[in-house]
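Second attempt. The first submission of RAN binding protein had a stray character pasted in from the spreadsheet, which I only caught after the job came back as garbage. Lesson logged: always re-copy from the clean sequence file. Corrected sequence (1154 aa) follows.
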Amino acid sequence: MSLDPSQLSQLEGLCESFYGGDVNQQKQAHEVLLPLTCNLGCLTQLQALLAQSSNPHALMFAATGLSKLFTSCWAQIPDNQKEETKTFLLNYLYKCGPDMLRSAPYLVGHYVRLLAQLVKFGLLDSLSPRPTITDQVGQFLSASTPHWIIGLIIFTTLTQEMQTSTGLYFAKYRRAAILFRDTSLPVIFQIAIKTLRQFHLGSVSVSNQHEEYRLLRQVLQLTLCCLSYDFMGTVPDETSEEQNTVMIPHSWTILREEYIPIIFFDIYAKCCSPNSPMPDCASICLQCLILYSSVRRSFFPTQADRTRSLAALMTGTAGIIQTKMGLEHESCYHELCRLLGKLNTANQLTELSSSEAFGLWIDQVYNFTIKSLEEWSVLPNSKHYLLGLWSHMVIPLLYQGDRAPQNLEKYIHHITVTFIQSRMKLAEAIARGSDVEDPLESEVARTEQLDVLSQLSRCQYHETAEFIVQLFEQVTDAAKNGSISQDCFISQITWCVYMHGALIGGHSIKLRRPLLPGSSSSSGTSRPDQKNQVSHHVLNGKLARLVFGLSQQTDQLAETPESLELAYLYFLEQFRKVCLGDYAKQFIQPETEDATLASILGVQSDDDVLSLIISKIGRNLQTKSNMESVVQKTLSLFHELVAGISIVQYTDRTTHLIVSGRLLLKNEQVKKILCNHASPEFAFLNNPRYGRHRTSYYFTLSKLLFLDSKEEEPGTQPITTFEDFMKPLEKVFTLIWDEIILGNNSSSNGGGYNIVQFKIPLMALARDLRGICMACVGAESYNQLFNWLVNRPKQLGQSRIHLFTWAADKLWEDSDVMNALLKFMSEFVDNKSQRINFDKASPNGILLFKEVSSLICTYGSRILSKPDSSFQNIYKEKYKGLATTLAMLCHALSGGYTNFGVFEVYQDQSLENALQLACRMCLVIPEHDLQSYIKSLKSYYEFLELATRCFMSTFITSLEPQNLATICYSIESGLCAVDNVVLLACCATLDHFVSFIFTTLEKERIVLPNGMGISRNNDNMNCELGGGLQGGGSPSLSSQGSTPEGKAVYRFMTEQPNALIRIMQLMFNLITTGDLSTWTFSRSLLGMILLFSNEFQNIQQQLINQQIDEKKAKYQALIQDLLKGTDGTLSAVSKDAFTRNLHFFAHSIRSNSL
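This time the job returned cleanly.
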């Protein structure tokens, strides 16, 4: 199709308005142009616009529109049209690209991206394609310089486009990425390195300096893309660089050449020269060196090769630091810091120190680090890599002892002190109002810096701790004298508190005995080598005393800055881990009796040390309710105190298990909290926004409550009983029950009840109960809660638990209330740790499931009746509730405490109603939304697995074939999911589903049309795919099934056979690219092969035809051996044989033996 001049002019005018017109013109252009990008019939029109127009806006729109159409409608576009478009783009870029590169370089990017997408999608068209893009682009590299640049742009964009990424169809795109890695990427990398070598040797002759710069920058960018390619297809975590290893294929031998690092360092020097500064190219050189230094250790065949490479990197970086070459550019400075950090994390200290270049390198890095820390306001984020370099040397340094490199310990201590001083200067500058980033306001940045300090301080710990103590005293004295402002004092003292915690948390303390209330000192003499350990113990006590003293002073104030409160909590967490939880290590005898932790802190006993922490927790929960982060971290600290466990070795060498919760039970303040947990003094409980914090609070208290009941000795009274503990919650139940359900609300004056006022109490009640239930880890504690909720088992409708079903009936539209109620019920029916263990004669399991079924049906029927268009936030208001409901049903079905046969025997519809409603819930979630919220909707796939495993008859007879196909399509998408839980659930669901179909067909002797069916040859135990039970079967064969299950199977297999065929095709695609475990797929794949023999034969032929002639015979033998040893059934023996065959088949392909 071609456009006549008037059509072309009209479209160009609309494109001009689309990108640059006024509001009315843009609106009109939108109405005309946007449909072109959504209608497959407009594909030729966009192609004609791309071919005929010279208007930049029209070309940009055409390229963008084609990209959108090819992405969304790839399967519907004929192959010849795809190939013609790709050929046109290559020819157009070759013919018009140089002019476009000069006049409108951004257009080149649009054309190249479209071309890269066509190549990428083309790799998915067949099971084993042979891409030829490198040959097609080769013509660009041998033409003019602009052509050369465009060719490199194509390779760069193609490499970026092929990178694996998470999301929908991850596994499919990963297949394309792996094929590209094995075929085209090695050739592209060779081209990039050879071009760089030409630059290095000076053999590249470009008269135009600007073109030379663009060419160099593009080849460096291409090299960087090749080195940063996701070779393993695992989408590595990029939030941390410490563990990132470049998994270069062993076949990339060019990267082992000695000149590789020299090329990058020399080009870096050239780019930083004053005559022709190119800082962006210099920065890319350093990025390439970072990746080169991250290459896996096994890539170098010998240790000598690796040592030579490391020496070149150390010499090069030392030279840059020594000459300060390019460091005035921020990008170069930052990348150099990254490179130095990577050299340390990728190599051990012994490897670094054994290099001849180490002496010069470590001196230069030390001087560079000190100067960088002194200039603390310049690129603060870059300094993290320098500090990380030194912190990673601490442990190896301490381990090596006298064998450690000279001056290294002194260097690390000096850097530690300089870093501490820089934090004080930073705090002072922030107090003055300087425009710098405050790490105290960023938890990530603050945590990184404190972690580094805790490591650095382990080297010459005593000197570092003494320095911080003096700094603390100097800051407090300066505040008293008025020599610093209040803002400066708060900022600096907050840093001091944080640093006290970092030192204590990073230093391994050894004490002589555990912290047991009322324990007395043990006699004994200290060993001579324990002197420093005791001094560290005393010093840590001094650090803690300063912080506790400051905390007590600030607690007397009306308001305390939130940053300082968070610093206190950080310190207490470190203090808890080391001083209360680190008693699992051996204990030492202090020098004097005055050196106990309690005496250093100025309290009477070890129990008083606990009281210092508990008092701070109590004060925060009472007075800091306006600071949510403080409340959250306080509750987290409280929970860690309760749940901590240590294995302790006493001085007499006996070993004891110390549970810190037992220590807390002996503390008077903890007893007070446990007995008055719902007191109005705990102001955070009155904040409706703190729902999750209520759950955490009651989870912690309940652990103490149940621990106290276990520890109760005969003749002793518990701190509080379960009944007394539940009285505040009972009051809420009674209030709602009497005033609403029973209608005893005297204030309503006969006008009914106002349910809105009870929403907040209902949510609070559900969250409190969920916390209590989470603490029920055994049958005894769970039965206490069950009996409290099901207090009238013979009248279930009048039990406390029925309140939630009633609430679901009245408040189903309120997502906040329902999410809280459903989460509690999901937790309550979860049989984790086998805590739900009713007596055999007990009806409790049946009662519990009936209540769950009632809640599901009440909520589900109502939420499904509401149209999607009426939801403002469909995830929060609908999908979240559906996901929790499905999870609750999964817990109830898999709990093992209910005899589901009872419901069928007594014709009780509870089970059937719950299953049917759950199936309806699955069907109302669109495929796109399911994949978008797959993390939250895992219960969707978990329910399908349970339903097909345990209730397949109900599942298949209650759904129409079209609905079953819809579920199969969602399983198909789930097979491409990144989440392993979803993947395993999909594979198990398919196994159950296909096995049921196969068994039903075999049992009822059902004949299927269109070549579908099963046949067996038991003589040689090899499966023969005969295309169905036709002609040779028994005369008594039924055509469409004799039972409801058989008829449902027949309808599904005849009306929706493509649902399973598509999955079988996808499985072969994934297996041939190594995406998944063959065992995971084999169980269900065998059944589909037996059901769809003709389609399997087509797949075999397609796989064979797409191989080169030399490999066709071997490929054919491998495929034919897939069914070797199987007998045409789904018996365990047949499945095991198929699994072995499939593993060998996949391994042969992945190992490049084909």
